[in-house]
Amino acid sequence: MRLWYAFIMIVVCFNVWFGSDALAVEIEDFAAQDTPSDGGQSIDLRWVATGRGKVFILRSTARDSAFSVVGEALASDGAYTDFGVEEGVNYYYRLGWMSGGDTLQTHTVGPAVAKSNWFRKYRSNALVTTALMFFLVITFVNRAKKGHPLYIRRIAGLSSIDEAVGRATEMGKKILYIPGILSLSEIQTIASLSILKHIAKLTAIYGTDIEVPNKDPLVFSAARETVREAYLEAGKPDQYREEMVTYLTYDQFAYAASVTAKMVREKPATNFLIGSFFAESLILAETGQAVGAIQIAGTADIPQLPFFVTACDYTLLGEELFAASAYLSHEPVLLGSIKAQDVMKAIIMVVVGIGIVTYALGSEFIKNLLLTR
Amino acid sequence: MRRTLPLFLTFVVGMFPIFAFFVPHRAVSDLNQQLDTWLVIVAAFALPLGVVNLVGSNITKIKRKQKGWPYSIVLLAGLSVMAFYGIMGGEQGFHPKFQYMFVNMVSPLQATMFSLLAFYVASAAYRAFRARNIEATVLLAAAIIVMLGRIPFGDMLTGGRMTPLSEWIMTKPNAAAQRGIIIGAALGAASMQIRVILGIERTYLGKGQE
Predict the structure, then answer these.
(1) Is residue A299 a contact partner of residue A277, using CB atoms and an 8 Å limit?
(2) Which of residues 307-366 of A touch B (CB under 8 A)?
(3) Cβ under 8 Å to A: B residues 77-96
(4) What distance in Å separates residue B43's CA from the closest CA in chain A?
(5) Engineered SS bond to A282: which of A307, A371, B73, B152, CB 3.0-4.6 Å?
(6) What is the pLDDT of residues A339-367, one digit of tens each?
């Protein structure tokens, strides 16, 4: 073991001694300043280097003493961001590097002070887009309130919900509704609960059994309220049972095992898989397919879409999932927001089209306009 | 008040992360992190509700001798033993028996479920790649090219043409289609979020559309 350490030390010394000779560095225009548009947690260092090699970042709170190494960078990078600073403190910097066995340093720069800013300038484009989206939604919702007719195309997956519930009613079997595996902070889960309410109303009217197994405890509580409310609105509060909405486990694959076991044992007539899914998507959808259930899936998780398209009878692709509540309720106010979404999509298509043409002509203006961090 | 307060809270809690996205000031980012912590606390309070429901429904299943009731005994036993040793671990970390059961029982079971995916992918692929119509035939052809492009045998058969063709399918038509869906889904999600924040979409509250 000692031999091994000795070997490593020799290699390190060799690199430092001979390597640094070979990679001589000269630094010019070294400067330090507060990182713009941040929360006061970093300072940017810039320099111009000739030659290759590694430089050490030296920092102190005094101009002439107590410098210590806080990081390293390649000289050719010409930049380093120091995240180990406190807001409002004066910092001085030097760059150091090895040359012929000696340690060389630049002159001291500073003081640089990290400050909190009130706006991220590099996100101005995102702010404009967000404001435009809000404006469009509010405008079209107001137009819808005034009675302007709005058209929404037929979505096969949503139109077939009645047929799927009807099939379960005729067969006298239950409906399994799986609201995904993420929590209420996921917008797909909220969209899924909107669809659950519509389906629970139908099961209340037809007297069909429904079961909603949950992975997330928050979704479990919200789903229970949603189903109870749906039965109340359908005028059948007496038919609602607590065991319609159940909690299984917080573990992804234990949840998948439990739900697939339910499918195999109880053979539901209809499965709804609507929400956010990960690796368990195909396990659930293929098992449902194998037991002969009619399956309607919906997700905006792109990697899971091919699995659902393959194994399910109908699939709500991305935006169709979010349009579901408007489509199912036919509420003009909700349809207004779908119209706003379409207008925004048209604007994006035009901008992307112009971007393609201008980029092909050698201009990067649109590309840079759309870049954000 | 019963409807106004949740809607007001939704507006404030929904708008704040948008505000924090554009405002980097430490005061704002600290409060935003605080909101995330509150979410974890709320979720922690909801967890006992789930456990109570799980225990209750499985006890009922055993009492009524419903189909598969012996599995409920296994579930309750597993839940009790794991919870017992999990609590016994205290602040020092995991109890050795908890660690033993997790490594030797829970992890292999998770891995088993995950590994089943291989068989499900095979059966799904068999169904998807049957050339029943033009679209399915195009899908089958693209799949064959991509699969052959991933292995040396494909290049050996075609004199090195399969890998570039496979890369072209993945980075051009496939990426273009995916980006189309991503843009649509992102706009859909943004529209839904605005509806929720502004109180236009209320179904999740269980209070109808009034």
Answers:
(1) yes
(2) 307, 309-311, 317-323, 325, 329, 331, 333-334, 337-338, 340-341, 344-345, 348
(3) none
(4) 6
(5) A307
(6) 888 999 999 999 999 999 999 999 999 99
